[in-house]
Amino acid sequence: MAVVYPAVRVATHRALAAREQLVQTYPEWEAWREQARTIKAEVIAHLDDYLEQLTRQVQSWGGEVIYARDAAQARRLILEVAGRHQVNKVVKAKSMTTEEIGLNSALESAGLSVTETDLGEFIVQLAGERPGHLTAPALHLNREQIADLFHARLGVPRQTDPALLSRQGAAVLRSSFGDAQMGITGVNFAAAARGTLVMIENEGNLRLTATVPPVHLALMGIEKIIPSLADLEVLLRLLPASATGQRLTAYVNFIHGLKNQGSAPQAFYLVLLDNGRRRLAAHPQAREALYCLRCGACLNICPIFQLGGGHLYGQVYPGAIGILLAPFLGNGADLADLCSQCGACSLICPVKIDLANQITRLRSQSVRHQALRLLVRATAAIMARPRLYRSLEPGLRLVRNHLPTSLQSYLWGSGRRLPEFAPKSYHRSMEERKN
Ligand code: SF4
After folding, report:
1. Which of 226, 337, 374, 411 could form a disulfide with 231 if both were Cys (CB 3.0 to 4.6 A apart)?
2. pTM value?
3. How far is the CA of 293 from the centre of ligand 1 (A)?
């Protein structure tokens, strides 16, 4: 059975309409896209130089820089930092990179309590799910479902008004900052020239996460570097416009220097994550996937994503960009077939990543795609021969009913099942009626 999330379609269409309305007011839009692409291309082409520069600059203002080769090493090093500061309570801002390395479960397995402070992340954390979208983690849930969840997990009265739901969530989250010993955030942009880290948000929770606890740890993929703050303006225009149709996010946080917290300055750690990014940067055709700003516009516009939501991909990064990142940053999953080849993602991407053609390239190497093509061809050949189909139909029914769930997910998308056969074929029903 195919899982369809009506909430996803409604929310993605709303975001697309807001984006379109805003972009119409920007005559410079196409020039900005070119400019942003040039900035990202420059960084990815000279990644090691910029990494070195960023490391030096962050160290110069007192931050400790940690380099993590892969997800396992990142988890281990972050746990070491937590141990060094006797951390048992962590507050976290929204960060797909922490999802990528499975940080929450690692911290919780080590006995630490973790509270997601972004409302959407908090909702999926309560639901025990992964985020369903890059910028809107609980996009797949409607307010009825969230009201049920809050009522069951927080013991608050059940009500479905979005503003009141936000207030119910905020009341719980507000109390979590005071006694947390460590705040963990992601990073949107890191300016190598001065070592300034930029984090954008709409709720103000990131600002509290980064400044209230005595330790702040920021985790970023190494591709988030930009040469200098002069490059920021165009990116700060493109990202929120593409994500939600906003001119600017409500908060733009700049971290440069240690915050004084009374008797001692706050400890700061910057974890730089590779986890396949260097390998991707070295790939002459695929490297442009590293230009991604994680705006989510390619998800919003994708007809497959609109139908099945982010969980369909079974990966941290869904949608068109997720298909491109999976072979490098994920578990090597072959998702190239989860694409309708409409090309809309390439047209909407604010850094002009040629997503559709990149997916076509992957498809030509995709074992899963070849398997599905064979299956479709064989099915078509059988169905074009009615007598053959009728003789094979009981066997096909048997195969369908005994197909392992894992194989169905492999062929059809994570968590989805192949459509079931009707209990009886139309032909057989008609024959029985005649007799
Ligand atoms: S690939 Fe482009 S459209 Fe998709 S999330 Fe990244 S920047 Fe946004």
Report:
1. 226
2. 0.90
3. 6
